[in-house]
């Protein structure tokens, strides 16, 4: 493809191979997918990575961050960031409460149509910037937020450049680089402020559990390199905003299309918390149907539906070769290997036969999680292996907390989107293509 070698490891077709004049393309069957994905992400982790070209293509935006690097550089990034997502920090739900109350102000409770997806992107950006930097950008309900506009523009431009492939060099970069300058101008003062504190002063603040310490202060305890800090902020911000907003959007969309699920989930929430008490971290974990709804949303709509790795040396995959496709297949260095969590999650061959107790794979059914246990590498909404998402618990907590506070407030959810709106788009992450238009009804108006 465009002079490059690709192998696709998740496709619901039987094994087949084709060859072009420049490179082979091998498509593996569904039986191969789990074994090959496990090899890519875990058992042969050192054989596959992002590669130098990926870093080159993404460097202006994400720099040398956790999402763009391999080897020791990647390991250093992960070691730097992992402590900032420890359970004690994830359990602090005050940031979510502050911003979800602001979000609720935009939902009138009388059924007025609102694009909840658009609101979620502002909400998650505000919560993420306050968690990372100690101050929200204030983008929710603020169409004039320069940072939010710049961040969206940079992502959109980056996506188009990547889709252009070998023609990306003809893509104009003026808006892209203007957006980057706006982003960096906002972030830099926070980095500067954090570096005014010595590592010893930051250690002391952390030990006192001071209310003025932020994620950024914690990172500054371990590195004084402002470029490293900037790159990690942008990497985590990308993950912390878009993935959570997309998942919340799809969750509300499915709840609006399944009023019985909405009612059942709301009943669980009210029985546990009543209509006003804010949930604790433990409360969220103790509501099984809430967890089923979140799991089911991530099953159907994984945030990163398609992913790719580069063979860093001549290697192989465990399945896809030979006459029957059950033998290993050779993979030359610099071959791109793609895998698709959205196919793995929706592939009927990965599920029991359809029955009263086993709904179709493409159907939204939180009840399936009462009995269904995914096989290893069948369900990977947060990736897997050494690169598994370090912010997984933070994201799940924010999604659960936000859903609980919304359902506590509103007795009914009305669907205002039609079949023509039932589409998804995949730029950097998966999102509803046309937003999610719904109406919320308070108890008195239901």
Task: Give a quick summary of the entry.
The protein has helices spanning 30-43, 52-62, 71-81, 87-90, 94-104, 116-133, 146-164, 174-195, 199-207, 215-220, 226-257, 259-273, 281-285, 288-300, 341-346, 392-409; strands at 6-8, 16-19, 24-27, 48-49, 114-115, 307-311, 315-321, 327-331, 336-339, 412-415, 424-426, 430-432, 437-441. It has 446 residues and is of the alpha+beta class. The longest helix has 32 residues, at 226-257.
Order of helices and strands: EEEHEHHHHEHHHHHHHHHEEEEHHEEEE
- Count of strand segments: 13
The pLDDT mean sits at 88
Q: Which percent range fits the helix content?
A: 40-55%
What is the secondary structure topology, with strand pairs?
Layout (H helix, E strand, L loop, with lengths): L5 E3 L7 E4 L4 E4 L2 H14 L4 E2 L2 H11 L8 H11 L5 H4 L3 H11 L9 E2 H18 L12 H19 L9 H22 L3 H9 L7 H6 L5 H32 L1 H15 L7 H5 L2 H13 L6 E5 L3 E7 L5 E5 L4 E4 L1 H6 L45 H18 L2 E4 L8 E3 L3 E3 L4 E5 L5
Parallel strand pairs: 1-3, 1-9
Antiparallel strand pairs: 2-3, 4-6, 5-13, 6-9, 7-8, 10-13, 11-12
């Amino acid at each position: 493809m465009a002079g490059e070698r690709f192998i696709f490891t998740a496709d619901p077709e039987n094994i087949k191979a084709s060859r072009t004049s420049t490179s082979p393309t091998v498509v593996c069957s569904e039986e191969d997918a789990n074994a090959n994905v496990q090899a890519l992400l875990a058992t042969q982790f050192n054989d596959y990575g992002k590669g130098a070209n990926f870093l080159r293509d993404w460097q202006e935006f994400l720099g040398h961050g956790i999402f763009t690097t391999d080897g020791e550089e990647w390991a250093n990034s992960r070691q730097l960031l992992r402590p900032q997502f420890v359970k004690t920090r994830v359990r602090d739900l005050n940031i979510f409460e502050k911003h979800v109350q602001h979000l609720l102000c935009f939902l009138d409770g009388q059924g007025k149509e609102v694009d909840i997806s658009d609101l979620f992107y502002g909400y998650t950006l505000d919560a993420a910037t306050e968690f990372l930097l100690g101050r929200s950008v204030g983008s929710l309900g603020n169409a004039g937020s320069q940072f939010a506009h710049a961040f969206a523009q940079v992502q959109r431009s980056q996506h188009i450049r990547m889709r252009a492939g070998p023609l990306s060099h003809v893509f104009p970069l003026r808006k892209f680089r203007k957006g980057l300058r706006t982003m960096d101008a906002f972030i830099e003062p926070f980095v500067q402020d954090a570096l005014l504190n010595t590592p010893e002063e930051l250690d002391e603040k952390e030990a006192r559990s001071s209310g003025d310490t932020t994620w950024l202060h914690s990172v500054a305890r371990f590195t004084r390199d402002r470029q490293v800090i900037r790159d990690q902020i942008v990497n985590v911000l990308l993950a912390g905003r878009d993935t959570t907003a997309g998942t919340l959007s799809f969750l509300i969309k499915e709840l609006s299309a399944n009023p019985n699920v909405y009612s059942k989930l709301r009943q669980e929430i009210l029985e546990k918390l009543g209509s006003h008490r804010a949930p604790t971290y433990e409360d969220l974990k103790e509501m099984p149907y809430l967890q089923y709804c979140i799991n089911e949303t991530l099953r159907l709509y994984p945030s990163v539906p398609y992913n790719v790795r580069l063979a860093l040396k001549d290697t192989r995959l465990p399945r896809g070769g030979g006459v029957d496709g059950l033998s290993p297949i050779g993979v030359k260095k610099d071959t791109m290997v793609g895998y698709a969590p959205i196919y793995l999650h929706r592939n009927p061959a990965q599920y029991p036969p359809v029955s009263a107790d086993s709904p179709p794979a493409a159907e939204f059914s939180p009840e399936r999680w009462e009995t269904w246990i995914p096989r290893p590498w069948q369900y990977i909404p947060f990736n897997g292996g050494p690169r598994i998402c370090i912010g997984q618990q933070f994201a799940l907590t924010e999604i659960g907390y936000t859903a609980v506070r919304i359902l506590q407030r509103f007795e009914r959810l009305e669907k205002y989107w039609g079949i023509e709106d039932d589409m998804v788009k995949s730029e950097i992450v998966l999102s509803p293509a046309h937003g999610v238009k719904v109406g919320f009804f308070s108890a008195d108006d239901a």
